[in-house]
């Protein structure tokens, strides 16, 4: 997959999405920020945009997806289907960190739908620089995935689930197979 992305334009679009989300959190009636706290809300915390964390993943698709029960923050279980495994390389310029190949499972709710792929994950920032319950990404391939397909996984779009801001939300927790043994300092922070 060739990547001819204008990094400056990518960064501008990312910052624009972040500003739009901050506005939603500050003003929208469906914001997860409790109404009594919105006046003091001055925006979400983010890691600096880092193009190294926009990676290409190769999909291994499950023809007969296995049911995965995900625990939730409210102590329930939600049923998802593991529809694909996404394998990707991380190559960083920081000499203290090892490059490596990693995998994340991608899920969809068990009921038939056209929802994007749901990729909940934990990494070495979880509970320190990011939310203790993990972060999420949603991927919307432009067609049904087949084995060997490549898609972009941009960790700069990783976000904190709404349950981090209000107990009225019940969020699935990333299953152990999606606990990365590496820090992903990209996307939303939560301290």
From TrEMBL:
Protein name as it appears in the record: DUF1684 domain-containing protein
Coiled coil: none
Region (Disordered): 21-40
Pfam families: DUF1684
Domain of life assignment: Archaea
């Amino acid at each position: 997959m060739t990547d001819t992305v204008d990094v400056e334009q990518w960064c501008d679009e990312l910052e624009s999405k972040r500003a739009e989300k901050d506005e939603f959190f500050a003003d929208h009636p469906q914001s997860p920020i409790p109404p009594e706290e919105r006046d003091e809300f001055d925006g979400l915390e983010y890691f600096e945009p880092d193009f190294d964390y926009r990676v290409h993943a190769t999909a291994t698709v499950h023809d007969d997806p296995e049911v995965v029960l995900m625990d939730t923050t409210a102590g329930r279980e939600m049923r998802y289907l593991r529809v694909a495994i996404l394998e990707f390389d991380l190559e960083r310029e920081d000499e203290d960190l090892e490059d490596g190949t990693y995998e994340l499972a991608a899920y969809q709710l068990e009921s038939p739908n056209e929802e994007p792929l749901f990729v909940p994950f934990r990494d070495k920032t979880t509970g320190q620089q990011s939310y203790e319950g993990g972060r999420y990404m949603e991927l919307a391939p432009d067609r049904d995935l087949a084995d060997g397909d490549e898609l972009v996984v941009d960790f700069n779009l990783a976000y904190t689930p709404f349950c981090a801001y209000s107990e009225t939300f019940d969020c699935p927790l990333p299953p152990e197979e999606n606990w990365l043994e590496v820090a992903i300092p990209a996307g939303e922070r939560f301290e």
